[in-house]
Structure prediction request, 379 residues.
Amino acid sequence: MGWLSWERFRCNVDCVNDPDNCISEKLIKQMADLMISEGYKDAGYEYVCSDDCWQSMSRAANGSLVADPQRFPSGIKGLADYVHSKGLKLGIYEDFGHLTCEGYPGSEFYLQLDAQTFASWEVDLLKFDGCNSQREDFDRGYPAMSFYLNQTGRPMVFTCEWPDYQTTHGIMPNYTGIRDACNYWRNWKDVQDSWDSIIDIIDHMGDDVGNFSSFAGPGGWNNPDQLIVGDFGLSQEQERVQFGMWAMMASPLMMSVDLRNIRPESKALLQNKNIIAINQDPRGIMGVRTQQMGSVELWNRPLTPVGNMATALINKDTHGKPAIVPVTGSDLGLVSGSLYTIYDAFTMSVVYNNASSNVNYKIIVNPTGITMFNIQLQK
Prediction:
């Protein structure tokens, strides 16, 4: 859980004309400060991460990476010290290719040196992209970077774009190898600030080609990309869909939003302890799509203790009328012979008491909305 610069701030390096929004240590420090003062750290968010464009355009004479001296005058080590002083962790970006996606120096032929550099800077997370490289090399290159990171002796979360690039180019990813090398991995395209993008990602995750859902669990996670809650493109209902579904998918929760200017309802959603608890369930099992009923999908996710579950119904329809969806308790995941209490997952208010598998229910799901339950087995 944390904050990542990319979706909201992109590669804005114009600190002369846009000093408050350019990729800089000033921006990263401000986000770190707000994660503390506005309650995000207390809610569980702990990583503050710069994506692409923190670098200088060339390496140092000894081959090492260098932060842009105007935008990061304290250097990455100085920035890490600041972030650590807040009780947070620092994430940084690099790329497997010879250049990053935005044209800065990549790690090709420098894997070991870059791993050692990140460790010396006391970085806590590395996002490793795949631009300007050969997709066929990923099965060797990403494990090599993982090896060199581990060789430094410094614990660093290693987040990979490995399957994203392969899937979008018709290559079936090796999820066994991906899980061995990476702590979490992007499965599909970059999220954009739109409902269409959110639904495209949910569709891909629901299709589950290659059964990648089975590889999720403690130490390794599927990653549908950043949260755009609080940005410009989603309605309040649609923000609930993204946050609820990212919890259903046991996804990393990486905000990409201007924490200085966030709507109160978006802030409250990002800090919703009930949805975060589902996301952070210790079993770490990814929820899967179990039914498609016209515009409505039903997803189920096992929770702790065994017998509990989260269930979500999302309505992809843009028509104005809410859907009334007939389901049985069995559809919701209830097992015959047991009784359950069904709670609204967002508020934890009781929706149905003494629920059972053979009872019929009618669930209302708003257009481009979600109805989500936390279902608990009665003792």
